[in-house]
Design goal:
Elements (H helix, E strand, L loop, with lengths): L4 H13 L38 E35 L2 E5 L1 E4 L2 E4 L1 E15 L5 E7 L2 E7 L2 E7 L2 E12 L2 E10 L7 H6 L3 E15 L9 H5 L7 E4 L8 E5 L24 H9 L3 H10 L1 H11 L3 H6 L42 E3 L2 E3 L4 E4 L16 E9 L5 E7 L5 H7 L3 E3 L4 E3 L9
Antiparallel strand pairs: 1-2, 1-5, 1-8, 1-10, 1-11, 3-4, 6-9, 7-8, 9-10, 11-13, 12-13, 14-15, 16-17, 16-20, 17-18, 18-19
Helix pairs in contact: 5-6
Amino acid sequence: MSSGWDRARAVADAVLYEGYLLYPYRATSGKNQSRWQFGVLGPPGAEESGIGENASLCTQVLVRPLGAPSVSGVVRFLQLQHRGVERDLGGGRYEKVDELRAGPDRWLSWDEAIECEIAVDAAPVSALPLAVDIAVPAGTDLETVDGGRLVRGRRDLRGRLSIAAEPDDGLLRLTLEVRNTSSPAADKNEAIATSLIGTHLLLEVSGGEFVSLLEPPGAAVGAAGRCRQHRCFPVLAGPPGDHDLVLVSPIILYDHPEIAEQSKGALYDSTEIDEILTLRIMTMTEEEKAQARATDPLAAQIIDRCDSMSPEAMLDLHGVLRNPHAAAPGPALLPEIPPDVDWWDPEADNAVRPELDAVLVNGTRVARGSRVRLHPCRRADAQDLFYADRIARVASVHGDVDGGQHIGVVLEDDPAAELHDWYGRCLYFAPDEVEPLIERSPKWK
């Protein structure tokens, strides 16, 4: 396996459980009554009858041969496991209940999940097509607890992974399809019980390299445009520069995704911001936390982790902004706040003067009065599209408490430019979104 496999698997784990359980993590919460949002492959006919999801996902990826390429990997998904709660009536008799309490301990009837992984042994591309059967057996487990027992039951799962290859403009285009081949379901409960949940693939190539479909090199643009995706998208996994791994995800990602080092553990609540969600959990009442713990062991881990989070760990979640494609920042000419002054202290304002401060952009000093060409790339505002390639004059240069730099500008051809400058109504861009122009504009009055 390549050196980036552990990193790719960590991201794949996040994909596997994304949307598994939503805040406030209680079975009684309305938003947890309909679960399993991403990568669900329902049994045949479930989508057509309105009781489940489409039965397949399909992806096409490009491989640049560097010899005799072969492909291996894993198909990963969750298997639903229903946890029933039964009260002990004595004499070997049990009664199904929604909730069981024994002192401080509580258990609820709930749908858990079991992680499943099907290995795909290395296969030479020259030997394709091939098919890999997916078979996960049914099962029932009993766990005795105070006052009763927990009955966990699973339905068997059936599926198939198909892999084919064909040449395309000097590259190889691989087509991979994962399909649920279980028997048709009679209702929604049976459909989700026999679905492959959170389905995704991790693929590794040897004797070749994967080509990015998000940013294909010039010679591969045509082939990348001919690739088709169904309910998923492949991105390069592993560290930047690594082209040995691909993650086929049902969630939109960028190439070389990674788990933020500030994240102390999964929160499962799809696309939520860690800091906000952690603060919400901290404000839950003890009764609400007890209900969450009784719902799912993973929810209990979240509650315990947030309850024990240190102030330093909480602070790490705040104010971190990343651009995965940004180059390393160049030297700045912004003054630094004295080390003995906190950023929120009014004295810190005396260390900076946006109308006089400057930054270096591509080796050129940019400050008030500089002329720049705009190249918006953050897509923070839809109106940025209208500013592309426009000429602007710099009005101010700012630094934020996280070390970021921002350049305030007004458009040169805006009839109200002077008025905007006088009011301080500027457009703000990062240094990598402006191109300094060599000629200098007259000094402003």
